[in-house]
Structure formats: C-alpha cells, structure tokens
C-alpha cells in the first residue's frame, strides 16, 4: 500500500486542509468500502463512490467522527496505481472454487477464518483490497 495523503496532525479538528484530495462522495451514500489500516493501527474503509475508476481509495473523517465530516483523512493506493486498476477495472476476474468434504470426526481444528487468512496470504499485501475470500461451511447427512 502507498499512502498518497494523510491529514496533517497540526490542523484544528474542524479545519479543512486545502491540500486534501476531493472526497468524491456518492450523493446516495454508497461507498467503495475497500479497507486498509494506517501506521497507527486505525482501520479505514474507502468512502468514495463505488466504481471509481482509479486505484486511489479515500476515507473521510466522518467515518470516525473526529474531524470535518466530509474532509478526507487518508488516501491510499497500490504500487501499480493509475486508471483502470481500481474497483471498476476492466481486468478479467479469476475465481477458484475448492470444495473440501470430510467426516465430522475429522473436523478437529478446522477454522473457517484461518482458512480464509491462509488463502489471502497467497497474495501480495497490496492486492488484499481486490481479493475476496469467502469460506462457507455446511453439514449434511452422509
């Protein structure tokens, strides 16, 4: 992840930063929702309109309630950057389906969250906002 903008700490909490990028909010309130964590460990999700065509995600302060509601607090992107690499990318999407079937007695230590984390670990960290991992579990009679 590349940080493109982080609000200067010296600004008054309600002061707007003229150097901040535009919030690019959707009038209906829909959001991109790509997620990241800043260097202080604060989680952020992109509040820009869905389908923005570049790879820069932005989160406004209103999300955490500690600054001007529509002022951008943080903006981030990925190392490839540029148009065509954001959520509206025309790049083909690949789907891999893996089905694991096992008897109930073999389920010791099977953890859906860990399986999802293990799959995500196969991708570069900068790709994580573009990779979706869904693990579902069901039981049926043999």
Summarize this, please?
This protein has one helix spanning 112-120; strands at residues 2-6, 35-37, 43-45, 57-60, 72-77. By secondary structure, it is mainly β.
Q: How would the global form be characterised? A: elongated
Task: Describe the main β-sheet briefly.
Answer: 3 strands, antiparallel
Distance between the termini: 46 Å
Rg computed from alpha carbons, rounded to a whole number of angstroms: 19 Å
Query: Looking across the biggest beta sheet, what order are the strands in?
Result: 1-5-4
Which percent bin holds the helix content? under 10%
Instruction: Provide mean pLDDT, rounded.
Output: 80
List the helices and strands in order.
Answer: EEEEEH
Quaternary state reads single chain
Enumerate the spans where pLDDT stays under 50 for 5 or more consecutive residues. Answer: none
Count of alpha and pi helical runs: 1
Beta-strand residue percentage: 5-15%
> How many runs of DSSP E, i.e. beta strands?
5
Helix/sheet category: mainly beta
Write a structural description.
By secondary structure, the chain is mainly β. The chain contains one helix and five strands. It has one helix at residues 112-120; strands at residues 2-6, 35-37, 43-45, 57-60, 72-77. It has a three-stranded antiparallel β-sheet with strand order 1-5-4, with no helix packed on it. Strands 2-3 form a two-stranded antiparallel sheet. Strand 2 and strand 3 form a beta hairpin.
